[in-house]
Each structure stands twice: as structure tokens, then as C-alpha cells.
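ingest -> fold -> write
write: protein_1
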Amino acid sequence: MKSGRILAPGVVLLSTLTLLLSCGPPPTTGPSDAIAVIPNGGSAKLPLQPGMPLHNLEFVNDTQVVPGKPIHVSRSGQLVVIGWAVDQDAKSVPGGVDVVIDGKAYAAETGISRPDVVQVFKVPAYLASGFRFSAPAAAFPPGNHLITVRVINQARSAYWQGASTSALIQ
């Protein structure tokens, strides 16, 4: 055994405590840490089509979307985006719909029945034109977020992008 200084037990304890305190708090693992929404939108690698899509971003949660008016979303609930979209060139339902939040595209559920859209446009193929996106609001940091809808054409070769609306997550 090599010779060296032997420290008194009090010095060893104090040195150990000092070392532990300098490491900072232990990492926390709670339910909010596990919340993650991974961008999975189909429009991310497609080119943007010129022009506006034929769509309507109707509701964020239970609030009707009004251009220029931010919508308040509670961090403890869900962020739900509802509307309808069609491929106006193909006169059909789109190949997909992405809800884009702060530039990241998330695939929306599509194929939701919208007889009101058929009634207005007189195109029976628009029946399954509804879409819905839902994610835990806590997956996004508090603050203002831009929400945009991308309508992917039926051939899945390009997309149109609509105007943005603002959601304030608190």
C-alpha cells in the first residue's frame, strides 16, 4: 500500500458533501418530461405548390379561428386543430394534411366525414375531407406558436400552404 495522508472522518465527509453539492440537482423524471410530439408530416420533403389551398382551419380546441386573433390554449390540456381540406385540382380529398406548428409538420388524421363541404361545393368526392390533429399542449413550450395547414395533393407530389393563425399556450 502506498503511503499517503490519512484524512480524519469529518474531512472525508465534508469533502464528499462538497463534491455532491457541486454536481447540481439530480435529474427529474416526471410525466411532463416524457411528453414529446415528433414531427411526422408528409409535406416536409415535398415542394410547395403556388396558390392557396382550398381548406378551412376552423377550430383550435373549442375556439373558432378568426384571422389575426390569437387563441389561448391551456398547457394542462390538449392542442386540437380541426378543419377540412381538399385537392382542388384533382377534385378529391387530399393525399394528406399536415398541421405545421412553428415550422414543424405533424400529420393530421384525415378522412373525417364532412357532408357540409359536399353540400357547399357540390362535389361528392369531398365527403371525407375533414381533418383533426391532437397533441398534449405541454409538448410545446409556453408562449406564442404559429399554426399553419398544409394540404398535400392527391398524388402526394406537392402541397399547398394556408395562412397561419396564432395559439398562445399558457
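write: protein_2
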Amino acid sequence: MKALRIHHLIFLLLLIVIVVATGMIESVWTQRNYDALPDMYASVPVDAQTHRWNTAFKNRDENPATGTVSRSDTVAADIAPFLQPYMSDSARQAAVEAALPRGEKIYRVFCEPCHGNAGLGDGVMTQHGYPPPPSLLSDATRARVDSSLYRIVRDGQGNMPSYSAQITPVDSWRCVSYVRSLQNKKPQTGGGTP
């Protein structure tokens, strides 16, 4: 008994308890034994067109979380909301001017790294081996209609990726308006196609 010490006995007793307890546990493989978060997979559905559904739908925009993007800004629009055909020229000009500050912010974040501060295609990325993009002040870019520039921002072209996941449609139009303002500030330059 000298070889069998007290800690060996304790280990043996624990092993016996584990084996017996394992044998006593009933295994039902088709059923969960314990649900830590039952609401994660068995949530109470909300029936559409009911009072509860309408109340939830109406109230969800009242207190949005910080950084929430408005649903109205995420709906795809083929016409800039500030360039509607029914607007007078003075109202259109005022709306475009009001959109320029936001358009400039969008341009600075997403376009300037490649196209450069003035839109000449000399951004920081070109200093790191990225192929230079075309100048936004070229005759070919000036000749494009606004909807063509909008689609390039949304869908990408050539080496330029799509920004539809990062920029809302309304902000894409604002960015196009800012590019047009850059073109109006600078004299025309020759260059490649955008």
C-alpha cells in the first residue's frame, strides 16, 4: 500500500465519479439540453400589417443610433435630388451650392488619394506605385454627362473600385457636383479618357 499514496486514491475516486456520472447522463442527440440564449434562435415573430408591426415600423426612425444612415439616402436614385427637372435654375444653383461642402468631404475621403487635391490624377497613391488615374479636368471627363460620372462612382471603372457600399447615392451625386465645381475652377486640360 506504500506505492498507493493518498493523492493516487483521490485521483482514482474522481475518475470513478466521472465515469459513473457520465453513464447516468441521458444523451438525446436530437434535443438541446440547455439553452444559454433561447431568444437568439426562437424569437417572437412580428406579423406584418398588424398594429404591433405598424407601431414598430413607425417608431424605428424616431431615435436612430449614432451613425445610422437614413433609409431615404440609401434608395438608389438616377436623378440627383437637388437636380430635379421641376426646379427653377436659381433653385437648382442654390441646391448645388448647398451640396458642395458635403461633396467636398466625400471627394477628400474617397477620391483625393488617387485623383489628387485638384483632380489632376496626381494623388498620394500614385507615389506608391498605383497607376495614375485620368485627370478629372480632362476634356474627355468634362464631356461626360453627370449620370455617367455618377455611375462610375457607384459601379467603378478600370482600376477604380465601386464605392456603392461606402457612399450613399445622394452623396455620390454631391461628389459629382464637387467634381464639376473643380472643373469650373481650373482651365481645360488635355488628357486621357476617365
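write: annotation protein_2
Residues 88-185 form a domain with the Cytochrome Bc1 Complex; Chain D, domain 2 fold (CATH 1.10.760.10).
The helical segments are 6-24, 51-59, 71-74, 89-115, 139-143, 146-155, 169-185.
pipeline exit 0
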